[in-house]
Design a protein that fits this description.
The chain is built from 1 helix and 24 strands. By secondary structure, it is mostly beta strands. The protein has a domain of 128 residues: Lipocalin. An 8-stranded antiparallel β-sheet has the order 4-3-2-1-8-7-6-5, covered by helices on one side. Strand 10 and strand 11 form a beta hairpin. It starts with a helix and ends in a 17-residue tail after the last strand.
Length: 385
Amino acid sequence: MVLIKLAVLTVLTCLSFSGPVDAKMVVSGDYLLSVFDDEIEGASADHPEAGLVRISLDGSGGGTFQDLILSDDGSLESGPLNYTLHPTGAVKLLPGEGFIPGIASQNAQLLTFAETGENAPGFIFGIKKPDAALTMATKSYIAVQFSDDIDNPGPGQTADEPSVILMELTLGADGIGSFQDLYSSDGEIENGAFTYSIDSTPADGNLTVTIDLPPTESSIDHTGIISQDGSVFTFPLILAEERGILVGIEKSDGDMDASTARGRYLMSQFADEIDNPGLSQNADSPASGIIEMVLDGKGNGTFRELYTSRPEGLTGDGSFTYTLSVNGELTVNTPGGEALHGILSKDGDIFILAETSRDYPAINVGIKKTPSGSQSALFLLLDED
């Protein structure tokens, strides 16, 4: 459970920067973080874990953390934390040895990180708790889900079988939701219905999705958070034999084009090979990284690997093309010919992408960097403009 203890103790311990702070970038208040990790070596190897953590930031470098839900049934911890951020929103978490890179959105509502320790790669996505009660109208989302079976699964389960699903999901104003899988790395396309609730008393944005499991008619609750405007949500997946994370972004009303997808983004990624890989693959080899993506608003882009948990690298550097539908659905065509599917938010500030190849499923979340003229040698790798 290295990441959940390291990451939580470091949104936590110190995000370091030098140079003047851009007045537009103030990160403060309470956030809920979905956390997922998968250790490669040690007693917890091949045993993915997930959790939900609350952090409270005071806007001047101090704060606290509190574990809310952990899949390993360990004791819930809490304590003080320190933080800083760079004017472009890039952050580095310093757990004592090494660091955890990531980014905050320009409006300080969203956070994402990649734990790039070689033996314990992980992925974090967080949303600021709302300031007022939420009133949900019916909304449609595109969501990406990454999950993996644990090392001692139940009947019908297979250990070390990571998968990614891209789905369309609707949250109705009546508390009833539905989902339809669009792409899946394991080839299974499903659909169904569920109920959900949002805790607005007090106004904290807690989102609980309840899924019924026939024929036993039991149910499973997944608890996470939805943003103030209802446009983004996340929750960790904590099942008896499976762990994972889900991130969803609201679809646009139909007024987007390629020019909306323009700017520099930092993208967190988590990927894993399956247990029956090809000749060039390594089974049970989870990896994470931070990648800079530059989109020109005309359908062309470049990517540059900044940090990775693999010494040999994860994606390398290169170029790609992309298309954007009027409702924000995003397709990225990689140099190798693979298409990654996802969605870009209405304001163009965040995107998700699902890599649904059978042998190498991955989840990707990108947040746009805040424009800034100031530079810091300490953050040069994260912030070369």
